[in-house]
Amino acid sequence: MIEKNDDIILSVRGLKTYFPVRGRLLGKKQYVRAVDGVDLSVRRGRTLGLVGESGSGKTTAGRTILRLIPATAGQVSFDGQDVFRLRRGAMKALRRRMQIIFQDPVGSLNPRMTVGGIVSEPLKVHGGMTAHQRRQRVGELLDRVGLSKMYVNRYPHEFSGGQRQRIGIARALASKPDFIVCDEPVSALDVSIQAQILNLLSDLQDEMNLAYLFIAHNLAVVEHFADEVAVMYLGRIVEVAGRDALYEKPTHPYTRALLSAVPIPDPNARTTRVQLPGDVPSPINPPSGCPFHPRCPLTRELAQAMDETETREIVTLGESVRVVRRCVEQTPALQEVPGDETHCHACLLRQGNT
Amino acid sequence: MSDNGTLLRVSDLRTHFHTEDGVVKAVDGVSFRIDRGRTFALVGESGCGKSVTAFSIMQLIPIPPGRIVSGSIELDGEELLDLNEKQMRHIRGSQIGMIFQEPMSSLNPVFTCGSQIVEAIRLHRRISSRDARAMAIDLLVQVGIPEPAQRFDEYPHQLSGGMRQRVMIAMALSCRPRLLIADEPTTALDVTIQAQILELLKELQASTQLSILLITHDLAVVAGTADVVGVMYASKIVEQADTGQLFAEPLHPYTHGLFRSIPRLGEKKHRLETIPGTVPNPLNFPAGCKFHTRCHIGRDKPRCRTQEPTLREVRPGHWCACWECDRYETAAQSDPSDKVT
């Protein structure tokens, strides 16, 4: 996993973000462990897709990396600079290079500012341009994202969802960043508009050599868009691989279940669905050992063929099931899939074989 | 067309909203029917009028500004538009149940889930609260909620999104309706939970002969659940066919564009095909075919620009509102990149 490489623009090590919960249980302070030890690297000009169900911590991870939320532990290095240790001035300079596009194009644009004002705000903050230059640059940016320059003096509410997302993209591009966190950029949009925005993001990447951290819950979109994919569950990465490896040879049972839950737009498709019982558990008190064990189909299946010393009875969703003892007791770490050093998974039951 | 198989028949429904800026024709001449025990899906993008169609059937359109201008909605031969509010209130719940996209905002946060189901039951049936409680717990079991007796006394915020949607389904089914209107029932849910809910709906349908009107923007959801599909664009159904037929051979350029713009698993094409432009403003629909401004075939055709096509039966059971769809379909089929792997 750890590569010393000029190619890597962003590298994240052991990132943890905990939020304190009000009140104490038995005198102990409790925390929501939204991100609980995440390692990632994003290559220059490439896209890392980060997928997971809601509550998996993917959005929090994205924001912590940008230092929009304070990290509890861990290190983020951006082009050789330790992001969490930078002082104010240096951090401001670095923010020029790291931007974000939000999911909700309504909530992330100030309704009282004109489009021109919104897009030129980063240019003002980072300085060095005259008003005339700024106006010119805003025109170029709007043009680039497919909006007419005539819209400069309009307000966000006058635009459709797709157009608003274009404004958000223009704003993110204004400071000429190298890296953009795209936090579910298309999930609030209609299908026909989604494709337009995805194509725009991909053209911009080619043109400006942008690196993306592409956060999404739609696995088909991620397959289409990402070069590498990391799957998150309860604050941890459970599998990371190159796109083709992940989609063709998913190893972690959670990845398999996620993939098989994606509905296929073909009425004749008869897939063998891995039905996942229940929901993502609470990150305040995550399950012991492998956080996935209460929902994991693999551990239940393998436990049947094992004798009692190797298994344990757990109660989940009101019924008691037998699972592999190791899954409850040991916390799995990411390990390589034999023969593919870029493909790692965190499953105790898939050691040595697939 | 055997009528005893038909549960709901909507004919030429028009629902308009009178706003300060003008008349918004949100639904403008929509017709379809749903057979017993079957699922009809209305598919379209936001603003196409699919939800207004559902609310019109339930007569939950705010009047004013809304108004059902004309048309007919027959449930099992009974004309719903002739009923008064009291009669309609009896139909809602006991004949037609409804579930919505966001279960959190459709459940009352200050009452327990159980008491809300009991309320729904006792509105329509004269039974003791103890019997109603037993029935409610039984319903929670049916919709697959673990530890139902305990969940009964919990508040909506204590449940996850998927559990809330199950409670909504339990409530909608509490009086054994014959028709369930599901308005984007899985849009707010994760894929894993979506799969659970869709499976649940199918099981319930198989065991109770429920008819379902499924409203969604997601063609992939439609593929696995619906028997018949209507594609809506700009307040009208532009194409309608059996699910298998529609997916095998979409005829309308809009439907075709929708299919091509969805990213599919197992497909790594670099660029997605898009439908240019955006859905037109309902205050100011283009003349002629409402899709012609975005259509790569009809953009310059004089007929498409001036005359609006009506639904016609292009194949047996396959209806399409397009002047050019006969010619279009050959072009569509010769494209091998359209295959799913």
Describe the structure.
The complex is a heterodimer of chains A (354) and B (341). Chain A has 354 residues and is an alpha/beta fold. Chain A has a domain at 110-169. Chain A is 31% helix and 27% strand. Chain A has an 8-stranded mixed β-sheet, sandwiched between helices. The longest helix of chain A is centred in the middle third of the chain and has 18 residues, at 191-208. The relative contact order of chain A is 0.13. In chain B, strand 11 and strand 12 (318-320) form a beta hairpin. Chain B is globular, with a radius of gyration of 21 Å. The longest helix of chain B has 18 residues, at 191-208. An 8-stranded mixed β-sheet of chain B has the order 6-7-8-3-9-10-12-11, with helices on both faces. In chain B, strands 2-1-4-5 form a 4-stranded antiparallel β-sheet. Helix content of chain B is 35%, strand content 23%. In chain B, helix 4 (113-124) packs parallel to helix 7 (161-172) and helix 5 (129-142) crosses helix 7. Chain B starts with 5 loop residues before the first strand and ends in an 8-residue tail after the last helix. Chains A and B meet through helix 5, helix 6, helix 7, helix 8 and helix 9 of A and helix 7, helix 8, helix 9, helix 10 and helix 11 of B.
